[in-house]
Amino acid sequence: MTQAQQTGGHHADHFIVMGVAGAGKSTIAELLAERLGYPLVEGDAHHPQANIEKMSAGIPLDDSDRAPWLEELGALMRRSDGPVVLTCSSLKRKYRDLLRGSSGSDILFVYLHGSRKLLSERMNSRTGHFMPPSLLESQLESLEVPGDDENSLRVDIGPKPEVIVDRIIASLNSRA
């Protein structure tokens, strides 16, 4: 592991773009990774096939479904040669704790949040994703917003993606 990155007031070895389905994690993470010059890791690409089949069938994942996936993502960060930007819903504090513990890293969680209406509109308009709109409610019910004691940054998803990433970068740099 390389020395931790100091980006503004946020110390982090890695960045996880988190939030419920439809928040724009992949879009924002791709732009953020490009701006920071770090590799992008799409967390959904590491789900076991059984998880994808379960979600595709409209069945929410439970903690036992998520644990091996989260451990794999943590191990991936631990093995990386430097910082990465990773997408992962990270809905519950215990999931974020598992990611921190299994990665052995200091992680900045970039929490993307928006109204139920906006999230629903986005999920209903996207195509080709295994997560059906019917699972949004269960994700919102599971969501535990990062606490003040967690290394996190809360970002509204209303603006265009480029504006969101500009705001993330500005927030990171404003605390330098």
From TrEMBL:
It comes from the Bacteria. The keyword Transferase applies. InterPro entries: P-loop_NTPase (IPR027417), Therm_gnt_kin (IPR006001). Pathway: Carbohydrate acid metabolism. One of its GO terms (molecular function) is gluconokinase activity. The keyword Membrane does not apply. GO terms for cellular component: cytoplasm. It holds the Pfam family AAA_33. It catalyses: D-gluconate + ATP = 6-phospho-D-gluconate + ADP + H(+). Keywords: ATP-binding, Gluconate utilization, Kinase, Nucleotide-binding, Transferase. Its EC number is 2.7.1.12. GO terms for biological process: D-gluconate metabolic process. Belongs to the gluconokinase GntK/GntV family. PANTHER family: GLUCONOKINASE-RELATED. NCBIfam families: therm_gnt_kin. This is Gluconokinase. It comes from Pseudohoeflea suaedae. The lineage of its organism: Bacteria, Pseudomonadati, Pseudomonadota, Alphaproteobacteria, Hyphomicrobiales.
